[in-house]
Description:
This protein has helices at residues 45-54, 58-68, 71-89, and strands at 2-6, 12-16, 35-36, 42-43, 95-105, 108-118, 121-125. The protein is built from 3 helices and 7 strands. The protein is an alpha+beta fold.
Amino acid sequence: MVASITLKHNKRINTDILLCCAPQNSGYARLPLCNKSKVGKWISLPLITQAISSLWFLIPIALFVTVIKTPWFKGVAGEFIVNVGAKLFLDKETYHLIKNVTLPTEDGSTQIDHVVVSKFGVFVVETKI
Length: 129
């Protein structure tokens, strides 16, 4: 799409325009407010650009919330909490923590998150959040 741009001092330049980037009231360049897309609908690019520039901080927040809700992250967080709790609250002389134990079964294998061995017995801890 070829359009003319009016710069300061009323100089006119013809150029190919892909995006409307200049603000409407900037005084430096006056571009058309809308470009017509191939399907015939009018898209107001400055409004979209303004919305994105004013709400940019929501993109990382949305990604963070999306990752936190995944089962993978919940499993990692749960195992981290159990590991930290075991290291802080269990005596290292009395308790021995074994992590991620894989045992063979008849139909494949199974995985145990934590096994705590002590003089008081063997404790199996399966982490779920």
